[in-house]
Design a protein that fits this description.
By secondary structure, the chain is α/β, with parallel strands linked by helices. The chain has two domains: 118 residues, Rossmann fold; 110 residues, NAD(P)-binding Rossmann-like Domain (Rossmann fold, 3-Layer(aba) Sandwich). The chain is built from eight helices and twelve strands. The protein has a six-stranded parallel sheet, with helices on both faces. Helix 2 packs across helix 3 and helix 6 crosses helix 7. The relative contact order is 0.17. It binds NADP nicotinamide-adenine-dinucleotide phosphate. NADP nicotinamide-adenine-dinucleotide phosphate binds next to strand 2, helix 2 and helix 3.
Length: 247
């Protein structure tokens, strides 16, 4: 029998971790699929495909042709479409699907978190917190927050460049992971009054939460979108156990 194929829907550290683990495992091979949004994605163990599938129809056609033994949806907690596409396509073809979803951060008593549904709600409440906001919600949310300029001083941090920013908006282009020390220095450098973050969870983004906690800075947290029903695990090792149990 040939090696069993796993399609990993990626774009996260967890997807990369599972790909590394599977690449070392006899009897398995994996294809990691990336949306192709990041200009310089990190290295991936195993095979790689990039770009959208073309909706549920395209994904279903890909799965029907490749016939993976399983799909592990390890997309980011804020990926709004891909988990639903994967759920529908896998259900149609009877392919086992697992959601690999990192846990949310745990709130400590000193944390000053305000949870909001989305960026629009964050925009409505941000002026209550002071003058300067550090926005770590990615380049795609930037236009929503730019409504606050010049009423507030905005410091936007993103992996990707953000073209055509108005004069006076600060852009910090940087790629995680960050240390709590570096995050503390960033908060201090710009005199940040409030931090805005997705409730992404995970180690790579936690440093800013720790730095805000240490400095008593409030954090406006964008809530995670809903997920399709079905089996879910929190880390790559649990995903490996689930795959092994497929028989
Ligand atoms: N949203 C975030 O905050 C965030 C943060 C870090 C990393 N990411 C990663 O970036 C990717 C895109 O994020 P998004 O928020 O745009 O997701 P999304 O809303 O779920 O997906 C939008 C479209 O992008 C394509 N796509 C998404 N993930 C894909 C994958 N792994 N392989 C192939 N095509 C994919 C699909 O296109 P088709 O319909 O044409 O198949 C999908 O319909 C995801 O893979 C996610 O893991 C997202």
């Amino acid at each position: 029998m040939g090696a069993r194929l796993v399609l990993i829907l990626g774009g996260t550290a967890e997807a990369a971790g599972l790909a590394r683990a599977l690449a070392d495992r006899p009897g398995w091979r994996n294809v990691t699929s990336l949306a192709g949004r990041t200009s310089a994605p990190g290295p991936v163990a195993g095979e790689l495909r990039q770009g959208g599938f073309g909706g549920v129809t395209g994904l279903t056609a890909w799965l029907a042709a490749e016939r993976p033994a399983a799909v592990v949806d390890a997309t980011h907690p804020f990926a709004r479409q891909m988990p639903w596409h994967a759920a529908e396509a896998c259900a149609a073809l009877g392919i086992p699907r697992l959601r690999l979803l990192r846990p949310s951060w745990q709130r400590a008593t000193e944390d000053r978190w305000v949870e909001v549904a989305d960026a629009a709600e964050a925009v409505r409440i941000l002026p209550n917190f002071g003058k300067t906001a550090l926005l770590t919600t990615g380049h795609e949310a930037a236009p929503t927050f730019l409504q606050l300029h010049p009423r507030m001083r905005l410091v936007l941090r993103s992996i990707e460049p953000i073209p055509d920013l108005p004069l006076g908006v600060v852009h910090v282009q940087a790629r995680p992971p960050f240390t709590p020390e570096a995050e503390a220095a960033l908060l201090a450098r710009y005199g940040v009054d409030v931090l805005v973050s997705k409730a992404s969870g995970g180690a790579a983004g936690h440093a800013k939460i720790l730095a805000a906690r240490a400095q008593g800075i409030p954090v406006v947290l964008l809530a995670r979108p809903p997920q399709p029903d079905g089996p879910a695990v929190a880390d790559p090792s649990e995903a490996l156990s689930w795959l092994s149990g497929l028989g």
